[in-house]
């Protein structure tokens, strides 16, 4: 923030008592042009996951949250994706950014939610509007990456609620420290390594 204020004239900005800074239109454009843009934002990741098997919904917010996390870590280059700001939470890693993005995508008509909210019965599906938007991005991906998205999504869905929690707790243990159910998912020791 200090570098931004040094680069602009005092007449081009106004600072309010709460610390909020308002810039002139020209200065705001200059600052915006300097911002590093990511190739994928969180809404793209959600829609790519749902589009990769559009005939099948993702069941439950926890499963979707973990699949977005794993897509960022294991399918896409983490540096090309908007930071979802995952934190350790009640059921492992949680992102308020992803939760908010889900609400925004539903409100905008890109996804639909069915079933009991905040339960394993809740379903997330991509709509026709969502498919029209994300199909261009999906088709621009290399065929290998499209196939990897499809295979990973299928595998994660097959793991289900318990399987995906076991997977993420095993691979990313720092996110289970605040979990209310971490004792259910103790690592398996096979003697030579962790399985």
Question: Any overview of this molecule?
Answer:
This protein is mostly helical. It folds into two domains: 33 residues, no CATH class; 140 residues, Arc Repressor Mutant, subunit A. The protein contains seven helices and seven strands, in the order αββααβαββαββαα. Strand 4 and strand 5 form a beta hairpin. Helix 4 crosses helix 7. The longest helix has 29 residues. It is globular.
Write the layout of secondary structure elements.
Elements: H1 2-7, E1 13-15, E2 21-23, H2 25-34, H3 42-52, E3 58-59, H4 61-75, E4 87-89, E5 92-94, H5 96-108, E6 111-114, E7 123-126, H6 128-140, H7 143-171
Antiparallel strand pairs: 1-2, 3-7, 4-5, 6-7
Helix pairs in contact: 3-4, 3-6, 4-7
Oligomer: single chain
What is the gyration radius calculated from CA atoms? 20 Å
- Counting DSSP E segments of at least 2 residues, the number of strands comes to 7
Structural class: mainly alpha
Q: If you average the pLDDT, what whole number results?
A: 82
Short description:
With 195 residues, this protein is mainly α.
Based on the model shown, name its key terms:
7 helices, 195 residues, 7 strands, two-stranded antiparallel sheet, mainly alpha, three-stranded antiparallel sheet
